[in-house]
Amino acid sequence: MEVIKAIPVSPGVVIGPAFVLHDVLERVAYQTVHKEDVKREIKRLDHAVGEAIRDLEADRDRAAEKLGPEPAKIFEAHLALLHDRTLIDPIRERVETDRVTAEFAVAEAFRSLAERFRSMESEVFRQKANDILDLDRRVLGKLFGRTVDRLARLTGPVIVVAHELTPGQAAGLDLTKVLGLATDAGGRTSHASIMAAALGLPVVVGCQRLSLQVNDGDEIIVDGRTGVVVVRPDEETLEHYQRDVERRAQDEADLKTMASLPTVTLDGTAVSLMGNIEFTHEIDAVLANGGDGVGLYRTEFLHLTSPTEPTEEDHFKAYTRAIEMLEGRPLTLRTLDLGADKYTQERAEEPERNPFLGLRSIRYCLQNLPIFKTQLRAMVRASALGPIRIMFPLICTVMELRQTKMILHDVMEECQDEGIEFDRDIPIGMMVETPSAALMARSFARDVSFFSIGTNDLIQYTLAVDRGNERVANLYTGANPAVIQLVKGVVRAGKRFDVETSLCGELAGEVEYTMLLIGLGLRTLSLVPSQIPHVKRVIRSVDIPTCERLSRKIGSLDSERQVRRCLSEELQKVLPEMVGGWSVE
Ligand code: PEP
Ligand code: MG
Questions:
Q1: How far apart are CA 258 and CA 211, in angstroms?
Q2: pTM higher than 0.90, yes or no?
Q3: Is 504 one of the annotated active-site residues of the chain?
Q4: pLDDT tens-digit series, residues 184-211
Q5: Pocket of ligand 1 contains residue 292 by CB under 6 Å
């Protein structure tokens, strides 16, 4: 038995036979054709590209049906590549001039391009290389006259294990046959992870060498909540997880009733649970799970899924849809959080050496005002339609915040001059996701009406651990006392200066942390929609004095291990049936 602790992407536990997707790209031999066959070879090439385009269009439509229009746009980017003459023409020329086979010309062009991306050793470029290889696989599949992708030939329920999946493969997974997914590489925010999570599959990424350790048919367990993958489990572990699966199935049934119940503690304190979304269609899940609104709309996903720059109208349409779906419930629109692993590096001529510390998020917006203002205009216009709040990401200094607010005010003035209706009192807030913002929360409090603590980034910047790097995933934890101290300080500052404070990092959805967060004084949490009923159940089972006692006790601990143990034990006391997330560490 082997236990691998990797990066959880999407919750749920599954047990089943592995289906290992080895790198299916085969060696394509150098071969030439006779002079008189060159025309036919070019025809074959054009035909294969055309067929691949048709397949992609079908996949795009299928994804649109399953996931909604926004995620489906990832395929538009692939389609744009296949329509790109600067990519395809040199392949045709190679066949024409050097009389090589269409197969060889395709493989050579796509793979050398992918290799160039790969050699840059950046996560973002690895992803881009994957997109190119996806196209290589598709076009070669057509040329060879067969489907290269084994995924299309699945027969029974399996857990897919791969080195890395392309977004196309993730979106094409057959939900009647695929139970879950585990990959060697990738981060929580890679396109394929987003796609797979949106399908509702348990997903773990960053398992390092898993695809080499597992054979087809080997029994494996994937725990998408803790990021644990167990290979060939022993009897005891298998039984433990089987009980876990049964309990969770029963739990899911019980939790369905949770959606309509109020989120109050045993002693009557109300807590607001909001949903985090990337695409508007996820609002259905927020409401079905009993969420009170949207506490974090990651609006940058409109950029990530669109081959061209979204227009003001694109933004406005998305916000209007969200407002309509929420029917008067609150909606917090976060301005573009591009950069780092999202979008800008892929399109930059000179990628940054250290993008997580580079031109990302609000910094990127402040240096790209047309993009930023386009979005702000759409937000300002949308404010006439429903209760929105605007939130700025990655604010590090007070000057940065003030500069950002000035730009928003400029946009409002422009709208006013143009006679556009909007809400003049849109609540303006900021993410607190850097140590500098957390430490200076009191100073920021004068300039905002709300704080939202982003623990995903706060953890990475406090502990100097890349949140998407599988090699240091074991060091990335919210149980670190320094992180907890920072959260505590922000909540205190918010209370002192009457700034509403919520928390929207993934910790908000981890039940082990719920009592601590309530004990620290948080009364609004924003989390992945599927976790809302789980967190609600904890809240309905505790009282405030117990949570406050726990937070004081945690405050006296100085190691992550002690913090984890204490949180687990306290949760077990309140809800003994609740499965702890750290049982197999
Ligand atoms: C965070 O950093 O905690 C957060 C919620 O933002 P994101 O995960 O989009 O960076
Ligand atoms: Mg963040």
A1: 38
A2: no
A3: yes
A4: 887 776 667 777 776 778 999 999 889 8
A5: no
